[in-house]
User: Fold this.
Amino acid sequence: MPGRRLPFTVIGGFLGAGKTTLLNRWLRDARGLRMAVLVNDFGALNIDAGLIAATHGDTVALTNGCVCCQIGDDLGRALVDVIEAKTPFDAVVIEASGVSDPWRIAQIGMAAPELSLEGVIVMVDASVAARQSTDPLLADTLARQLRSADLVVLNKADIASAEALAAAKVWVEGSAPGTPCIETVEAAVPLALVSGLPRPAPAPHACGPDCAHDHGHESPGHGEIFQTWSAQPEATIPAATLRAWLREMPPGVLRLKGLLRTGHGAEGDEWSEVQYAGRHGSVRKASPPSGQARAGIVAIGLQRQLPEKMLKEFFAA
Assistant:
């Protein structure tokens, strides 16, 4: 049975789109989850001094267990160092440079069997996107970044005029049709949306196994934008059925992750990890849950757009 692979996420986007703001937000919100963040330049990241525990050459260790590593000229070597770390990490986040193609970086990570691509998130400055997209020196680079995305984040929506925001949406849809696109202010994207990381356990509450309330977003205000649905399915769902369902995923689901029972074999139940981010889904054999743990699935979408009824019906069937 394959062992657990380390989830990695790539953040792309042009200069000034908000990649650094997003990384800092995620580092502050890690809450015990060990992330390795690979960046091109520490200076641009400007890590909160209160988080820094120690600095060793191209590595900054943070007080919350996360580390930031400067990539230098060899991303592959930096990834190997993370994979071989004495204390295992929970996930890797890679920041692509402002003019690079995030998909090429994702392909480097995908070459390592120890890593599992969770998704490519591309940040866009909504206030200037439409103007930049018509610049002959930038147009191809920006369009290529969008085509890489599992999720497009129209950041700085608060300072974009209504006309600029509308034009940015038209450009995104024209460059990457069908790709999920959300609007944010100050890169307010919860870590769980694309990272695949387990969220810290919420405080006990009175909801049942089909709870659809928001009990654990990483930052105040996320509950106003995003909605979470979760369940603990009792049914055995064949992997082929899951794969077919993922291919027809409705647009309201931005992220889905879970561990499900997918068959019965001579040695007992067979289990699979289910992942869906943006436009891509996967079903991969996994070790059974330990102890008395049960199957579980979590879906995240925008408020009032998450198709809870469809999710409940499918996983209850």
Observations:
- The chain has eleven helices and 14 strands.
- Confidence is low (pLDDT under 50) at residues 198-223.
- The radius of gyration is 20 Å.
